[in-house]
Fold each of these.
Amino acid sequence: MPSFSPQSRAALLALPLMLLAAQAGAHTGEGINTGFASGFWHPILGWDHVVAMVAVGLWGAFLGSPSIWILPVVFPLVMAVGGAMGVVGMPLPAVETGIALSGVILGLLIAFAVRAPIWVAAVIVGVFAIFHGHAHGTELPEAFSPYGYAVGFVVGTGLLHMIGIAFGFLTKSEIGKAAVRGAGGVIALVGAAFLFGLA
């Protein structure tokens, strides 16, 4: 078992408290001192974003190759386009509804083990990515560089996709497939909670 210095132990114990303290302001970037950091934490500390982005990785893993890699690439690329739309002030109706629906629909696709063709899956993921990106772009703090912020939220999104992919590898066993489908159901419920204003 590795040994840690007292300073390391203190830092490890403080990390959860710092994350909890940052959560209240991270969705808008308040209290975060760089564009990259604000962009990075924005998707990670917003549950409406988390469930959809993990779902993309899960669904890609469930569909198998090449979806396992294509979907998590399509999402941040298209999300960056939506982010640019938000930064320049281009209107997009029902952004919050689109974000909530992304959790509901992607969760249900996983829960019901829907095996869509790769182009259909990419279109579904791309449409939802526009909404997520637009939300990131419109919430860009004025004091921060849009470039650093954009790189931050793409990196944060990629991390969430990788978490979904990692859990998606459970589909190699029947028990794992059931667990992943159950996770899809949970994601759909979280999305529904946001959709109906319960979260």
Amino acid sequence: MDMLKKLFSLEGKVVIVTGGAQGIGKIVAEHIAAVGADIVIFDMQEEKAKATADSIAKEYNCKTMAVCADVTKPEIVAQAIEKAAAEMGTLDLLFNNAGIALPKAALDVKPDDWLKVININLNGVFFVSQAFAKYLVAHDKKGAIVNTASMSGTIINSPQKTASYNTSKAGVVHLTKSLAVEWCSKGIRVNCISPGYIFTELTRNVPQEFQDSWINSTPFKRMGTPEELAGAVIYLLSDSASYTSGCDLIVDGCFTLI
């Protein structure tokens, strides 16, 4: 058991979680804290992010902080990284999880709709990854990044129409691979997870006929939970994955296999 704990321990690490105020980000942040890490929540929902950070600190007896940060603004991201490093003492790992979906038929997508999704889901991942990597390089530190992509980067969703989301997540997968190759010489590993349909605050509000369609099309015959993503993220952030970079780990209940 001691060896198992050591394999997946994040003890002594400081982990940034973007989009960590709720949903997948919040649940995964809790699990990361449970295996020993201190947590920094980046989120636009300032009060909710602070409440999440305070709750994690109390529950897991770790150090936390919340930073209101718009991941689409490089200068704000850089300031947030600097602020987090100053308050936490260091930064080690990043879970890039902020994202949105705006389901709409492609013929009806307005330019602002398209740009909003791409800016948050793809550009935001790059801007935070770049600022975080610059911090690591400047301080001669090794580190790891896990990005949240989606099975939507591999398949086309149905019945909802989400061309902007699918495109952004496909971009995250290939960005992950590109950064992995470019940064391996710097000791920075970059991987991503690609969740299938996960039951969260957002998906529970989707029309029931959509949820039924998703479940019926998934061999597991259910949606996943945020808790079922935590192990994948912890593995990819931990030293157990020291020879793994550029990986897209699909966690989808076999959805993409049929």
Amino acid sequence: MSSLTGKVALVTGASRGIGRAIARRLARDGALVAVHYGVRGDVAQEVVEEITHTGGQAFALGSLLGVPGDVEALYEAFRAGMADRGEEPVLDILVNNAGVSGSGRISDASPEVFDRLFAVNVKAPLFLIQQGLTVMRDRGRIINISSAAAHRSFPESVTYAMTKGALETLTLAVAKEVAERGITANTVVPGFVETDMNARRRETPEAAAVLAAHSVFGRMGQPADIADVVAFLASEDSRWVTGQSIDATGGIGL
């Protein structure tokens, strides 16, 4: 029996990059996965098809985060997707992966960009957790995806780094509050990963080499590197780990 058989997972921002890898890995481990997307429903459906083609279970749900009514719309779509499968709207694993970047240095900061980044990267996870707890079963898992930018000076994207710091503070508070139900809450901290978000930073071989050199392994991370850590935190094996920020940077800064 796979480790997550009978479990239901919701992964935000799961149509590409790290989220896509997480959705595929959790499905491989036996979970029914709700593949959330913001805009590209066609791409999210590709993820669902990849999962079902290999014997897994998944369905796509769309909800644009960072706008009024976003969390309500997401859980409405979740309930509808579960009902379509004849399932009760219960949840075991919530992965807050969706996020936006691009804030620039402090001289580039603007109220509009600040509000947008905090709305998607901080406000949405807070209320996704709040409402998710009403349907999450005991001994569930909350997993937030942060960034090495929250642990090291990253003036190139100051507001983005601030949002990830706030997300980790949220994890700490939630972990203590939900412990009585046997629910754990943890953060995974990626470094430079080969995703669309980092595409502009590795446009040339030289630029890619600079990013790879940050890791002691001399390469950039792959989405699967992060997904495997998430899979551990989603499993029963992680039952004694909570309130932690798990470094998954490949040894940046050692």
